[in-house]
Fold these 2 entries.
Entry 1:
Amino acid sequence: DAGVTQSPTHLIKTRGQHVTLRCSPISGHKSVSWYQQVLGQGPQFIFQYYEKEERGRGNFPDRFSARQFPNYSSELNVNALLLGDSALYLCASSYTSGRDTGELFFGEGSRLTVL
Amino acid sequence: RKEVEQDPGPFNVPEGATVAFNCTYSNSASQSFFWYRQDCRKEPKLLMSVYSSGNEDGRFTAQLNRASQYISLLIRDSKLSDSATYLCVVNTDPRSYNTDKLIFGTGTRLQVFP
Protein backbone atom coordinates (compact mmCIF):
# COMPACT_ATOMS: atom_id res chain seq x y z
CA ASP A 1 0.00 0.00 0.00
CA ALA A 2 1.27 3.48 -0.84
CA GLY A 3 2.19 5.66 2.09
CA VAL A 4 2.05 9.43 2.19
CA THR A 5 3.76 10.83 -0.88
CA GLN A 6 5.23 14.29 -1.18
CA SER A 7 6.72 16.26 -4.04
CA PRO A 8 9.18 17.61 -4.79
CA THR A 9 11.65 15.87 -2.50
CA HIS A 10 14.26 18.61 -2.75
CA LEU A 11 14.15 22.12 -4.07
CA ILE A 12 16.22 25.28 -4.01
CA LYS A 13 14.67 28.73 -4.18
CA THR A 14 15.89 32.28 -3.71
CA ARG A 15 14.59 34.87 -1.31
CA GLY A 16 11.31 36.45 -2.38
CA GLN A 17 10.23 33.54 -4.54
CA HIS A 18 7.17 31.42 -4.05
CA VAL A 19 6.98 27.64 -3.52
CA THR A 20 4.22 25.03 -3.75
CA LEU A 21 4.61 21.67 -2.03
CA ARG A 22 2.28 18.78 -2.69
CA CYS A 23 1.07 15.85 -0.65
CA SER A 24 -1.05 12.77 -1.24
CA PRO A 25 -2.34 11.06 1.91
CA ILE A 26 -2.71 7.38 2.52
CA SER A 27 -5.81 6.05 0.79
CA GLY A 28 -8.78 6.38 3.14
CA HIS A 29 -7.20 9.11 5.25
CA LYS A 30 -9.18 12.32 5.20
CA SER A 31 -7.00 14.47 7.42
CA VAL A 32 -3.78 16.08 6.23
CA SER A 33 -1.38 18.07 8.39
CA TRP A 34 1.69 20.08 7.47
CA TYR A 35 4.74 20.45 9.69
CA GLN A 36 7.97 22.41 9.38
CA GLN A 37 11.12 20.82 10.76
CA VAL A 38 14.18 22.98 11.06
CA LEU A 39 17.50 21.16 11.51
CA GLY A 40 17.94 20.07 15.10
CA GLN A 41 14.35 20.76 16.10
CA GLY A 42 11.16 18.75 16.29
CA PRO A 43 8.37 19.20 13.73
CA GLN A 44 6.31 22.37 14.20
CA PHE A 45 2.63 22.34 13.29
CA ILE A 46 1.64 24.61 10.39
CA PHE A 47 -1.84 23.52 9.26
CA GLN A 48 -4.34 20.74 9.46
CA TYR A 49 -7.09 20.12 6.91
CA TYR A 50 -9.99 17.75 7.16
CA GLU A 51 -12.62 17.31 4.48
CA LYS A 52 -11.20 20.34 2.65
CA GLU A 53 -11.64 22.62 5.63
CA GLU A 54 -8.91 24.13 7.75
CA ARG A 55 -9.11 22.60 11.22
CA GLY A 56 -6.05 24.11 12.78
CA ARG A 57 -3.32 26.65 12.15
CA GLY A 58 0.00 26.97 13.91
CA ASN A 59 1.96 30.10 14.67
CA PHE A 60 3.10 30.86 11.14
CA PRO A 61 2.80 34.11 9.14
CA ASP A 62 0.20 34.68 6.45
CA ARG A 63 2.85 33.95 3.84
CA PHE A 64 2.01 30.33 4.54
CA SER A 65 -1.23 28.97 3.11
CA ALA A 66 -2.64 25.59 2.25
CA ARG A 67 -5.62 23.86 0.80
CA GLN A 68 -7.06 20.39 0.48
CA PHE A 69 -8.65 19.03 -2.66
CA PRO A 70 -11.70 16.75 -3.07
CA ASN A 71 -9.40 13.71 -3.39
CA TYR A 72 -7.87 14.70 0.01
CA SER A 73 -4.49 15.64 -1.47
CA SER A 74 -3.09 18.92 -0.28
CA GLU A 75 -0.83 21.79 -1.23
CA LEU A 76 1.26 24.03 0.99
CA ASN A 77 2.16 27.42 -0.46
CA VAL A 78 4.78 29.77 0.88
CA ASN A 79 5.12 33.28 -0.56
CA ALA A 80 7.96 35.77 -0.31
CA LEU A 81 10.45 33.16 0.86
CA LEU A 82 12.92 34.05 3.59
CA LEU A 83 16.20 32.37 4.45
CA GLY A 84 14.56 31.14 7.65
CA ASP A 85 12.01 29.15 5.66
CA SER A 86 14.74 26.64 4.80
CA ALA A 87 13.55 23.43 6.40
CA LEU A 88 12.10 19.99 5.87
CA TYR A 89 8.38 20.28 5.22
CA LEU A 90 6.53 17.21 6.35
CA CYS A 91 3.06 16.19 5.37
CA ALA A 92 1.17 13.74 7.57
CA SER A 93 -2.14 12.03 7.18
CA SER A 94 -4.41 10.40 9.70
CA TYR A 95 -7.58 8.39 9.48
CA THR A 96 -10.20 10.83 10.57
CA SER A 97 -9.99 13.89 12.74
CA GLY A 98 -11.61 12.99 16.04
CA ARG A 99 -11.72 9.24 15.43
CA ASP A 100 -8.12 8.35 14.95
CA THR A 101 -5.68 6.89 17.43
CA GLY A 102 -3.42 9.90 17.47
CA GLU A 103 -0.99 8.34 15.02
CA LEU A 104 0.25 10.52 12.23
CA PHE A 105 1.69 8.89 9.12
CA PHE A 106 4.37 11.10 7.68
CA GLY A 107 5.70 11.42 4.19
CA GLU A 108 9.44 11.62 3.58
CA GLY A 109 9.20 15.38 3.31
CA SER A 110 10.18 18.14 0.94
CA ARG A 111 13.54 19.67 1.76
CA LEU A 112 13.49 23.36 0.91
CA THR A 113 16.63 25.45 0.74
CA VAL A 114 16.27 29.21 0.37
CA LEU A 115 19.36 31.06 -0.84
CA ARG B 1 8.59 27.83 28.55
CA LYS B 2 8.28 25.29 25.73
CA GLU B 3 5.13 23.20 25.65
CA VAL B 4 7.13 19.99 25.44
CA GLU B 5 10.70 19.76 26.73
CA GLN B 6 13.10 16.86 26.39
CA ASP B 7 16.55 15.88 27.59
CA PRO B 8 19.09 17.66 25.40
CA GLY B 9 21.13 14.62 24.36
CA PRO B 10 22.92 13.25 22.50
CA PHE B 11 23.08 10.00 24.44
CA ASN B 12 26.02 7.79 23.44
CA VAL B 13 25.64 4.29 24.89
CA PRO B 14 27.21 0.87 24.22
CA GLU B 15 25.21 -2.03 22.88
CA GLY B 16 23.31 -3.77 25.63
CA ALA B 17 22.98 -0.69 27.80
CA THR B 18 19.75 0.60 29.29
CA VAL B 19 18.93 4.20 28.50
CA ALA B 20 16.11 6.46 29.67
CA PHE B 21 14.68 9.57 28.08
CA ASN B 22 12.59 12.13 29.91
CA CYS B 23 10.04 14.62 28.73
CA THR B 24 7.93 17.25 30.50
CA TYR B 25 4.87 19.04 29.20
CA SER B 26 3.34 22.31 30.30
CA ASN B 27 -0.36 21.92 29.47
CA SER B 28 -2.03 20.05 32.31
CA ALA B 29 -5.09 19.47 30.11
CA SER B 30 -3.08 17.28 27.71
CA GLN B 31 -4.85 14.03 27.07
CA SER B 32 -2.64 11.70 25.09
CA PHE B 33 1.04 11.12 24.73
CA PHE B 34 3.33 9.40 22.28
CA TRP B 35 6.92 8.62 21.46
CA TYR B 36 7.94 8.92 17.82
CA ARG B 37 11.23 7.78 16.36
CA GLN B 38 13.03 9.64 13.59
CA ASP B 39 16.00 8.18 11.78
CA CYS B 40 18.56 10.52 10.27
CA ARG B 41 17.08 12.40 7.30
CA LYS B 42 13.89 10.33 7.47
CA GLU B 43 10.34 11.03 8.53
CA PRO B 44 9.09 10.50 12.11
CA LYS B 45 7.28 7.23 12.83
CA LEU B 46 5.18 6.27 15.81
CA LEU B 47 7.13 4.18 18.29
CA MET B 48 4.48 3.81 20.96
CA SER B 49 1.62 5.49 22.70
CA VAL B 50 1.95 6.25 26.40
CA TYR B 51 -0.84 5.19 28.73
CA SER B 52 -1.52 6.29 32.28
CA SER B 53 -0.82 2.81 33.62
CA GLY B 54 2.47 2.59 31.76
CA ASN B 55 3.04 0.26 28.87
CA GLU B 56 5.69 -2.00 27.49
CA ASP B 57 6.52 -3.13 23.98
CA GLY B 58 9.40 -5.56 23.93
CA ARG B 59 12.51 -3.71 25.07
CA PHE B 60 10.67 -0.38 25.27
CA THR B 61 8.76 0.86 28.31
CA ALA B 62 6.85 4.13 28.50
CA GLN B 63 5.63 5.77 31.69
CA LEU B 64 3.36 8.73 32.34
CA ASN B 65 3.14 10.77 35.52
CA ARG B 66 0.22 13.19 35.16
CA ALA B 67 0.80 14.84 38.53
CA SER B 68 4.33 15.81 37.56
CA GLN B 69 3.48 16.24 33.87
CA TYR B 70 6.31 13.92 33.01
CA ILE B 71 6.77 11.18 30.42
CA SER B 72 9.60 8.72 30.12
CA LEU B 73 10.89 6.13 27.67
CA LEU B 74 13.16 3.31 28.77
CA ILE B 75 15.09 1.22 26.27
CA ARG B 76 16.64 -1.97 27.56
CA ASP B 77 19.39 -4.00 25.88
CA SER B 78 20.14 -1.26 23.33
CA LYS B 79 20.82 -2.33 19.76
CA LEU B 80 22.81 -0.51 17.09
CA SER B 81 19.52 -0.18 15.20
CA ASP B 82 18.05 1.88 18.06
CA SER B 83 20.27 4.81 17.02
CA ALA B 84 17.83 7.57 16.11
CA THR B 85 16.17 10.69 17.47
CA TYR B 86 13.29 10.08 19.86
CA LEU B 87 10.53 12.68 19.82
CA CYS B 88 8.16 13.19 22.72
CA VAL B 89 4.70 14.15 21.44
CA VAL B 90 1.78 15.52 23.42
CA ASN B 91 -1.81 16.00 22.35
CA THR B 92 -3.20 19.12 23.96
CA ASP B 93 -6.71 18.66 22.61
CA PRO B 94 -9.30 17.77 25.28
CA ARG B 95 -10.99 15.49 22.76
CA SER B 96 -8.09 13.15 23.36
CA TYR B 97 -6.98 11.52 20.13
CA ASN B 98 -7.57 14.36 17.75
CA THR B 99 -4.44 14.85 15.70
CA ASP B 100 -5.06 18.58 15.34
CA LYS B 101 -3.12 19.42 18.44
CA LEU B 102 0.02 17.29 18.44
CA ILE B 103 2.99 19.15 19.88
CA PHE B 104 6.45 17.70 19.27
CA GLY B 105 9.47 18.11 21.49
CA THR B 106 12.84 18.91 19.98
CA GLY B 107 13.90 15.28 20.21
CA THR B 108 16.73 13.44 21.93
CA ARG B 109 19.36 11.82 19.81
CA LEU B 110 20.54 8.34 20.74
CA GLN B 111 23.74 6.82 19.35
CA VAL B 112 24.41 3.19 20.22
CA PHE B 113 27.99 2.08 19.59
CA PRO B 114 29.46 -1.44 19.33
Entry 2:
Amino acid sequence: DIQMTQSPASLSASLGETVTIECRASEDIYNGLAWYQQKPGKSPQLLIYNANSLHTGVPSRFSGSGSGTQYSLKINSLQSEDVASYFCQQYYNYPPYTFGAGTKLELK
Amino acid sequence: EVQLVESGGGLVQPGRSMKLSCAASGFTFNNYDMAWVCQAPKKGLEWVATISYDGSSTYYRDSVKGRFTISRDNAKSTLYLQMDSLRSEDTATYYCARAYYGYDYFDYWGQGVMVTVSS
Protein backbone atom coordinates (compact mmCIF):
# COMPACT_ATOMS: atom_id res chain seq x y z
CA ASP A 1 0.00 0.00 0.00
CA ILE A 2 1.15 3.56 -0.68
CA GLN A 3 1.49 5.61 2.50
CA MET A 4 0.72 9.34 2.41
CA THR A 5 2.51 11.52 4.96
CA GLN A 6 0.94 14.95 5.32
CA SER A 7 2.42 17.94 7.14
CA PRO A 8 1.90 19.91 9.21
CA ALA A 9 -0.88 18.31 11.26
CA SER A 10 -2.11 21.77 12.23
CA LEU A 11 -1.44 25.28 11.07
CA SER A 12 -2.34 28.73 12.31
CA ALA A 13 -2.18 31.65 9.88
CA SER A 14 -3.42 35.22 9.53
CA LEU A 15 -5.90 36.60 7.01
CA GLY A 16 -4.15 37.47 3.76
CA GLU A 17 -1.23 35.17 4.46
CA THR A 18 0.00 32.43 2.11
CA VAL A 19 0.00 28.89 3.50
CA THR A 20 1.48 25.66 2.17
CA ILE A 21 0.57 22.10 3.06
CA GLU A 22 2.81 19.20 2.05
CA CYS A 23 2.10 15.60 1.20
CA ARG A 24 4.72 12.93 0.64
CA ALA A 25 3.98 9.53 -0.91
CA SER A 26 5.92 6.40 0.00
CA GLU A 27 6.57 5.81 -3.72
CA ASP A 28 6.14 7.65 -7.01
CA ILE A 29 2.45 8.35 -7.67
CA TYR A 30 2.94 10.06 -11.04
CA ASN A 31 0.73 13.06 -10.20
CA GLY A 32 -2.18 10.83 -9.18
CA LEU A 33 -2.98 13.12 -6.28
CA ALA A 34 -6.04 15.05 -5.15
CA TRP A 35 -6.59 17.62 -2.42
CA TYR A 36 -9.84 17.98 -0.48
CA GLN A 37 -11.17 20.64 1.87
CA GLN A 38 -13.46 19.68 4.74
CA LYS A 39 -15.13 22.45 6.71
CA PRO A 40 -16.33 21.68 10.25
CA GLY A 41 -19.42 19.47 10.21
CA LYS A 42 -19.42 19.19 6.42
CA SER A 43 -18.43 16.60 3.85
CA PRO A 44 -15.12 16.83 1.96
CA GLN A 45 -15.01 18.88 -1.23
CA LEU A 46 -12.56 18.36 -4.09
CA LEU A 47 -10.12 21.22 -4.62
CA ILE A 48 -7.32 19.90 -6.84
CA TYR A 49 -6.90 16.77 -8.98
CA ASN A 50 -4.00 15.39 -11.01
CA ALA A 51 -1.74 17.26 -8.57
CA ASN A 52 -2.25 20.69 -10.14
CA SER A 53 -5.68 20.96 -11.83
CA LEU A 54 -8.28 23.15 -10.16
CA HIS A 55 -11.75 21.58 -9.75
CA THR A 56 -14.74 23.48 -11.12
CA GLY A 57 -15.74 26.43 -8.98
CA VAL A 58 -12.66 26.39 -6.71
CA PRO A 59 -11.17 29.86 -6.17
CA SER A 60 -7.90 30.54 -7.98
CA ARG A 61 -6.11 31.32 -4.70
CA PHE A 62 -5.82 27.53 -4.32
CA SER A 63 -3.09 25.80 -6.29
CA GLY A 64 -1.34 22.45 -6.33
CA SER A 65 2.13 21.45 -7.41
CA GLY A 66 4.64 18.66 -7.16
CA SER A 67 5.76 15.47 -8.82
CA GLY A 68 7.13 12.06 -7.96
CA THR A 69 6.62 11.59 -4.24
CA GLN A 70 6.40 15.24 -3.12
CA TYR A 71 3.29 17.40 -3.50
CA SER A 72 1.97 20.61 -2.02
CA LEU A 73 -1.20 22.66 -1.73
CA LYS A 74 -0.82 26.43 -1.57
CA ILE A 75 -3.47 28.89 -0.47
CA ASN A 76 -2.73 32.50 -1.41
CA SER A 77 -4.27 35.41 0.46
CA LEU A 78 -5.97 33.33 3.17
CA GLN A 79 -9.67 34.06 3.68
CA SER A 80 -11.82 33.31 6.73
CA GLU A 81 -13.82 30.76 4.74
CA ASP A 82 -10.64 28.73 4.21
CA VAL A 83 -10.68 27.59 7.85
CA ALA A 84 -11.01 23.84 7.39
CA SER A 85 -9.15 20.56 7.38
CA TYR A 86 -7.29 19.60 4.22
CA PHE A 87 -6.55 16.07 3.04
CA CYS A 88 -4.44 14.69 0.23
CA GLN A 89 -5.32 11.41 -1.53
CA GLN A 90 -3.39 9.23 -3.93
CA TYR A 91 -5.28 7.38 -6.67
CA TYR A 92 -2.36 6.19 -8.78
CA ASN A 93 -2.06 2.75 -7.19
CA TYR A 94 -5.11 1.02 -5.76
CA PRO A 95 -6.62 -0.67 -3.94
CA PRO A 96 -6.44 0.87 -1.48
CA TYR A 97 -6.84 4.53 -2.25
CA THR A 98 -5.02 6.26 0.59
CA PHE A 99 -5.40 9.61 2.27
CA GLY A 100 -3.05 11.76 4.26
CA ALA A 101 -3.89 12.23 7.94
CA GLY A 102 -5.05 15.79 7.34
CA THR A 103 -4.03 19.34 8.18
CA LYS A 104 -6.25 21.51 10.37
CA LEU A 105 -6.00 25.15 9.33
CA GLU A 106 -7.03 27.82 11.81
CA LEU A 107 -6.90 31.59 11.88
CA LYS A 108 -4.31 33.27 14.04
CA GLU B 1 -26.65 19.71 -9.99
CA VAL B 2 -24.96 16.55 -8.73
CA GLN B 3 -26.57 15.28 -5.54
CA LEU B 4 -25.71 12.28 -3.40
CA VAL B 5 -27.97 11.58 -0.43
CA GLU B 6 -27.08 8.83 2.03
CA SER B 7 -29.51 7.08 4.36
CA GLY B 8 -29.70 4.08 6.63
CA GLY B 9 -27.29 4.89 9.44
CA GLY B 10 -27.84 4.73 13.18
CA LEU B 11 -26.96 2.70 16.26
CA VAL B 12 -26.30 -1.03 15.85
CA GLN B 13 -24.94 -3.70 18.19
CA PRO B 14 -21.60 -5.39 17.52
CA GLY B 15 -21.97 -8.43 15.29
CA ARG B 16 -25.19 -7.16 13.70
CA SER B 17 -25.81 -5.83 10.18
CA MET B 18 -26.75 -2.53 8.60
CA LYS B 19 -27.36 -1.41 5.03
CA LEU B 20 -26.58 2.07 3.78
CA SER B 21 -28.08 3.60 0.66
CA CYS B 22 -27.02 6.54 -1.48
CA ALA B 23 -29.50 8.09 -3.89
CA ALA B 24 -27.83 9.87 -6.81
CA SER B 25 -29.24 12.55 -9.06
CA GLY B 26 -28.09 15.26 -11.44
CA PHE B 27 -25.82 13.03 -13.52
CA THR B 28 -25.86 9.80 -15.53
CA PHE B 29 -25.31 7.37 -12.66
CA ASN B 30 -24.38 4.36 -14.78
CA ASN B 31 -21.45 6.24 -16.34
CA TYR B 32 -19.51 6.50 -13.08
CA ASP B 33 -17.68 4.29 -10.63
CA MET B 34 -18.90 4.97 -7.08
CA ALA B 35 -17.29 4.61 -3.67
CA TRP B 36 -17.82 4.66 0.07
CA VAL B 37 -15.38 6.57 2.27
CA CYS B 38 -15.57 6.67 6.04
CA GLN B 39 -14.36 8.97 8.79
CA ALA B 40 -14.18 7.89 12.42
CA PRO B 41 -14.99 10.63 14.94
CA LYS B 42 -12.28 13.32 14.95
CA LYS B 43 -10.18 11.21 12.57
CA GLY B 44 -9.12 11.26 8.94
CA LEU B 45 -10.67 9.85 5.80
CA GLU B 46 -10.49 6.18 4.95
CA TRP B 47 -11.53 4.60 1.66
CA VAL B 48 -13.88 1.63 2.20
CA ALA B 49 -14.97 0.25 -1.17
CA THR B 50 -15.44 1.05 -4.85
CA ILE B 51 -17.75 -0.41 -7.49
CA SER B 52 -17.36 0.01 -11.23
CA TYR B 53 -19.95 1.85 -13.31
CA ASP B 54 -21.65 -1.39 -14.37
CA GLY B 55 -21.22 -3.28 -11.12
CA SER B 56 -18.88 -5.82 -12.66
CA SER B 57 -15.90 -4.97 -10.45
CA THR B 58 -15.64 -4.24 -6.75
CA TYR B 59 -12.69 -3.34 -4.50
CA TYR B 60 -12.48 -3.27 -0.70
CA ARG B 61 -10.04 -2.22 1.97
CA ASP B 62 -8.62 -5.23 3.79
CA SER B 63 -10.37 -4.54 7.11
CA VAL B 64 -13.85 -4.88 5.57
CA LYS B 65 -13.26 -7.67 3.04
CA GLY B 66 -15.69 -10.51 3.65
CA ARG B 67 -17.88 -8.34 5.91
CA PHE B 68 -18.99 -5.44 3.68
CA THR B 69 -20.58 -5.63 0.23
CA ILE B 70 -20.86 -2.69 -2.14
CA SER B 71 -23.54 -2.88 -4.82
CA ARG B 72 -25.58 -0.64 -7.07
CA ASP B 73 -28.91 -0.48 -8.85
CA ASN B 74 -28.41 1.61 -11.97
CA ALA B 75 -32.13 1.60 -12.76
CA LYS B 76 -32.73 3.35 -9.43
CA SER B 77 -29.50 5.43 -9.48
CA THR B 78 -28.72 4.08 -6.02
CA LEU B 79 -25.54 2.84 -4.37
CA TYR B 80 -25.55 0.48 -1.40
CA LEU B 81 -23.22 -0.72 1.32
CA GLN B 82 -24.24 -3.89 3.16
CA MET B 83 -22.28 -4.07 6.40
CA ASP B 84 -22.27 -7.39 8.26
CA SER B 85 -20.48 -8.56 11.41
CA LEU B 86 -20.07 -4.96 12.50
CA ARG B 87 -17.34 -4.06 14.97
CA SER B 88 -16.87 -1.08 17.26
CA GLU B 89 -14.03 0.10 15.02
CA ASP B 90 -16.51 0.48 12.13
CA THR B 91 -18.07 3.41 13.98
CA ALA B 92 -17.76 6.35 11.60
CA THR B 93 -19.51 8.72 9.26
CA TYR B 94 -19.88 7.02 5.89
CA TYR B 95 -19.79 9.13 2.75
CA CYS B 96 -20.94 8.13 -0.68
CA ALA B 97 -18.67 9.61 -3.37
CA ARG B 98 -18.56 9.74 -7.14
CA ALA B 99 -15.29 8.62 -8.70
CA TYR B 100 -14.20 10.59 -11.73
CA TYR B 101 -13.80 8.07 -14.53
CA GLY B 102 -10.33 7.15 -15.57
CA TYR B 103 -8.72 8.66 -12.51
CA ASP B 104 -10.82 7.72 -9.47
CA TYR B 105 -10.44 10.83 -7.42
CA PHE B 106 -13.72 11.69 -5.73
CA ASP B 107 -15.29 14.72 -7.35
CA TYR B 108 -18.63 14.82 -5.49
CA TRP B 109 -19.54 13.64 -2.01
CA GLY B 110 -22.75 13.10 -0.09
CA GLN B 111 -23.47 14.71 3.26
CA GLY B 112 -22.60 11.52 5.12
CA VAL B 113 -24.45 9.17 7.45
CA MET B 114 -23.33 8.21 10.95
CA VAL B 115 -22.97 4.57 11.94
CA THR B 116 -22.40 3.80 15.62
CA VAL B 117 -21.53 0.25 16.59
CA SER B 118 -22.07 -0.18 20.31
CA SER B 119 -23.84 -2.44 22.79
